[in-house]
Amino acid sequence: MRIDRGRIDRGLRRVGAYVRSAPGTYAWLAILFVTTVAMHHMSPEFEQEFLRQRSTNINELSDNPVRVLVQSAMWIDGGRWLPYAVLYTVFHAQAERWLGTLRWLTVCVAAHVLATLISEGALLRAVNEGMAPHSALNTLDIGVSYALAGVVAVLTYRIPAPWRYLYTAVVLAVYGYPLTSSPTFTDLGHFVSVLIGFGCYPLTRGRGKTRNPKETAAPVKG
């Protein structure tokens, strides 16, 4: 079987051009790859303590808020990188290419930080009122899902009507349903992230026309 090197080269150039068009997304994904590999080389006992020190739980937020807010976004809970590579390509890369790196990053930071503080504040209140155990103050809370939820929501404004309303309904259902039965502080954080993403509409102004899902995506030039 003869290999078409020209086609392979063109494919590689397109992939490279696509990655360069969303530098923040793929730099973040590269960091997550490195930290995920590192996590797989840790013993279970060391891993739990290591991650807990980088967790945005109430104890760590009280002592080192800036450090843990940054470090918690550099690790994946569960240690599975490939699904996030897909999600980052589908959502983060699209948002960054549309909004630009600075505005995309603003959405990510707003969702990650505000949702963390609000959900952990709700948990602290639950502990103080005896509705949650005191051990919850030191729970493990790392990952990138709040930022992802915010970006998923802000992409609503990239989609034209009437598809926009269907997309919004699906997003609200996916992130709102867990709140209807035995919700956790993480479920609350995800839903708050979505609301923050919706609230980032001002960042989307002047970023070009909405994208019609019926249209075939134009190839990336490289």
Structural account:
The chain is mainly α and 222 residues long. It has a single domain (5-204), classed as Up-down Bundle (Rhomboid-like fold), CATH 1.20.1540. It is 64% helix and 0% strand. The protein is built from ten helices and no strands. It has helices spanning 5-20, 23-40, 44-52, 58-63, 65-71, 82-99, 101-128, 145-154, 163-176, 185-199. The longest helix has 28 residues, at 101-128. It starts with a helix and ends in a 23-residue tail after the last helix.
Give the C-level CATH assignment. Mainly Alpha
SSE pattern = HHHHHHHHHH
Separation, N- and C-terminal Cα atoms: 28 Å
Q: Which CATH-level-2 architecture?
A: Up-down Bundle
Low-confidence stretches: 213-222
Number of helices: 10
Shape descriptor reads globular
For the sheet with most strands, the description reads:
none
- CATH topology, anyone? Rhomboid-like fold
What structural class is derived from the secondary structure elements? Answer: mainly alpha
Average pLDDT, rounded to a whole number, is 88
The count of domains is 1
Q: How many distinct beta strands? A: 0
